[in-house]
UniProtKB/TrEMBL annotation:
<protein>
    <recommendedName>
        <fullName>Lipoprotein</fullName>
    </recommendedName>
</protein>
<feature type="compositionally biased region" description="Pro residues">
    <location>
        <begin position="50"/>
        <end position="64"/>
    </location>
</feature>
<feature type="compositionally biased region" description="Low complexity">
    <location>
        <begin position="22"/>
        <end position="49"/>
    </location>
</feature>
<feature type="signal peptide">
    <location>
        <begin position="1"/>
        <end position="19"/>
    </location>
</feature>
<feature type="region of interest" description="Disordered">
    <location>
        <begin position="22"/>
        <end position="74"/>
    </location>
</feature>
<keyword id="KW-0732">Signal</keyword>
Length: 330
């Protein structure tokens, strides 16, 4: 559900999720402390199920026969538009639940037809919440836990069945992005696996995810992009997508420090929720600081957006300026 107000409580090494949110503009929104008691607008709510990590990771899947993107080729833009769903093992994360991946892929395919109106080929995306921030310190005190390899493998296998990219979403808690990314290197060597970074869940010492908005810097994002670029060049991989989600102007500081790197496609995904007017206002505010070398992305919420008005249609999304290159549904 609404990721920007999720506070994922966890026992040691247990990933859980909860969701909430109301439609307010970029300048007005502030995070609320975690509450397990309500599901009304403006309050958080617990998920209907809590995932439990599998104890034994499975081997990394073999690479696809050729180092190309799903459907062939090695470049993302401008040939493609990315359209996908977010989710994970908790229903609170979105519709990309482990027992409904084929159904979710069918829904993405149905949406894809409405986004393929300008000559681009739609490339489906599964965005899996892989590093999960929560409100308890866990074993290492860093307020995040990791999904095990067998979960990632299952999502990658499903993505490949449907010709989709898999993006590994990172909510780092008190850890830093680069350390969380490098521990996923064996997955990033796959030609159809990229990254999605969630800086609102990147908090400092003494802060708890969900109590405050976390943040990152353009320099930190650039360090991840440089790392990905080195992997692409060393292993002759197709271009890698690197999404960073942004819900508020304070969440990413100094964006201009994120510069172009060969083989990396950075995408700024605007996560504002609410009515169409509120979402468009947030879009305009956050696009104003987007570096020219970063592609635009837009996020919609099946539940939270529709609590405040009709869900924006693909035609309305495509009418945004600039036109989104990545459209994500949660």
């Amino acid at each position: 559900m609404r990721r920007s107000l999720v506070l994922l409580t966890a026992a040691v090494l247990t990933a859980a999720g909860c969701a909430a949110g109301t439609g307010v503009t970029d300048t007005a929104r502030t995070p609320t402390p975690w509450s397990a008691s309500s599901s009304s607008p403006g309050e958080t709510r617990t998920p209907s199920a809590t995932p439990s990590p599998s104890p034994t990771p499975s081997p990394t899947p073999s690479p696809t026969p050729s180092a190309t993107l799903p459907g062939g080729g090695t470049t993302i833009l401008p040939e493609h538009r990315l359209v996908g769903f977010a989710g994970g093992r908790s229903p609170a994360f979105g519709r990309l639940e482990p027992d409904a991946l084929d159904a979710a892929a069918a829904q993405i395919d149905a949406l894809a037809a409405e986004y393929a109106v300008d000559g681009r080929t739609v490339l489906p995306v599964f965005e899996l919440i892989t590093v999960v921030a929560h409100g308890s310190p866990a074993a290492d005190g860093l307020y995040r836990t990791h999904e095990p390899d067998d979960v990632i493998a299952a999502y990658l296998e499903a993505a490949r069945r449907h010709g989709a990219l898999l993006l590994l979403n990172i909510q780092p808690g008190r850890a830093d992005f680069l350390s969380e990314v490098t521990r996923l290197e064996h997955w990033l060597l796959e030609p159809d696996v990229g990254l999605a970074l969630d800086p609102e869940w990147a908090v400092g010492p003494g802060e708890v995810p969900g109590d405050v908005y976390g943040s990152t810097t353009g320099a930190e994002l650039d360090s991840v992009a440089a790392y990905l670029s080195a992997l692409v060049q060393e292993h002759d991989l197709p271009e890698k997508v690197m999404v960073f989600h942004q819900v508020h102007s304070s969440v990413v500081e100094g964006e201009s420090a994120l510069v172009a790197h060969p083989g990396v496609v950075p995408i700024k995904s605007v996560d504002g929720i609410g009515s169409r007017a509120d979402k468009e206002k947030t879009w305009t505010t956050l696009m104003a600081t987007k570096p020219a070398t970063v592609a635009p992305g837009f996020k919609l919420f099946f539940d939270e957006d529709t609590a405040l008005g009709p869900l924006m249609t693909p035609a309305q999304v495509l009418a945004l300026v600039p036109t989104p290159d990545y459209v994500l549904y949660e």
